[in-house]
Task: structure prediction
Amino acid sequence: MNKFYHIVTYGCQMNVHESEKIAGILSDMGYVSCEEPENADIVVFNTCCIRENAENHAFGNIGMLKKLKSVKKDMIIAVGGCLPQQINKAENLHEKFPYVDIIFGTHNLHELRRLIELKQGRKKTVIEIEDSEGEICEDDRPLRTSYPNAWVNIMYGCNNFCSYCIVPYVRGRERSRDSKKIIEEVKGLIKEGYKEITLLGQNVNSYRGELTFPRLLEKIAQLDGKFRVRFMTSHPKDFSPELIDVMARYPKICNCLHLPVQSGSDSILKAMNRKYTAEEYLKKVEALKKSIPDCAITTDLIVGFPGETDEDFKATEELVKKVGYASAFTFVYSKRDGTVAAKMENQVPEEVSKRRIIELVELVNSQTRVLSATYIGKTIEILCEDYDPKRGLYLGRDEYGRMGYFESDEDVVGQFVMMKVEQANGVSLSGRLVV
Ligand code: SAH
Ligand code: SF4
Ligand code: F3S
Result:
């Protein structure tokens, strides 16, 4: 009889990919994936703690399983990822949700099999969090779920300590994977038929293998086959002319770049410990646009960082207008215990942050709409990712990351298709296939 697993993932692409690694471990143990927690023998929550609402979301869903667990006593509930990796959080979780069976962190995900076996032999909750990162584990075999895209870790951790951010505390110091192993993995994926490779790291530009990041990217872009390469995330302080050069020379590298700016105010950037000024950021954007005029630039923005005045916020809006982002993620600052910013005076009142975020979202959306409208009538190449049964349409992205919807008689998932854009609806496009 089959045993079933159900994984709930929160947070960034790093977590999405780590859930594929968790799925790989569980499938090696004989478990099969299922859609509903009700049918599962093991439920794993892969959590995020980047903002308070990410944590609350996880807490809410773990809480909802209490009832199910009371009738399905043999079901194992495991909570891993960034949330329990925070200081004292594992104990806290255990107190709050005593029915959770296994609590693990970001540094011991590869040991999940042992933790499950340990739990099966005893009643007590298994709580194991490693404080330090240790060696990079190279023998995971992820069960990939995002075909035709494949996520590939090139590095782990972060050394930047932006003053608002919890990531360096829960992911440890930067460790880069061996360049040869990365290239081997990518080669294998292309051979298996993956059409898009996304290289992952908290700050890919500080990758330090035998190769630098631009050289690694170049080697990957030189591999044979029709595929696209993306990478994220780039820290502006390390975004270099060498990288622009490689992006410009290889058509396989998508003309899009996620370059989180966070704020347009120099005093806020300084307090955030971002290590660049608005002007330096804009210069890099200019250099990029000069080499790759059609490059779609996206970003992350935070409003309501401690001490942010109306002037500071205006500076952010000005910068957004100057860059003309293809799209942007906008966040209200969330205080994270243990970070430097959490101790700062002048925390911004919630009403002020709310007002600012509404204004900023409107600005960003208006830019996105303007850009979308320029697409009408154009024919673009889309890598079809999926079929949406609700809308009866296939969907996929162009190289700039924009989503397009279209009808097709044939199943074209995993194929590059040409779509003539007929309509632009905010962030997404729709149209018809052309040959
Ligand atoms: N390493 C990546 C991703 C970091 S997390 C990077 O540096 O870009 C993704 C985004 O979450 C960040 O860019 C930032 O905009 C946002 N973020 C991080 N900590 C936050 C906090 N405490 N409050 C609000 N937003 C935050
Ligand atoms: Fe967080 Fe900054 Fe590291 Fe990104 S670069 S993960 S925002 S500390
Ligand atoms: Fe969240 Fe951890 Fe990613 S805190 S954003 S899941 S690195």
Notes: The chain has four domains: 3-128, 146-254, 257-373, 379-434. Residues 350-373 form the longest helix (24 residues).
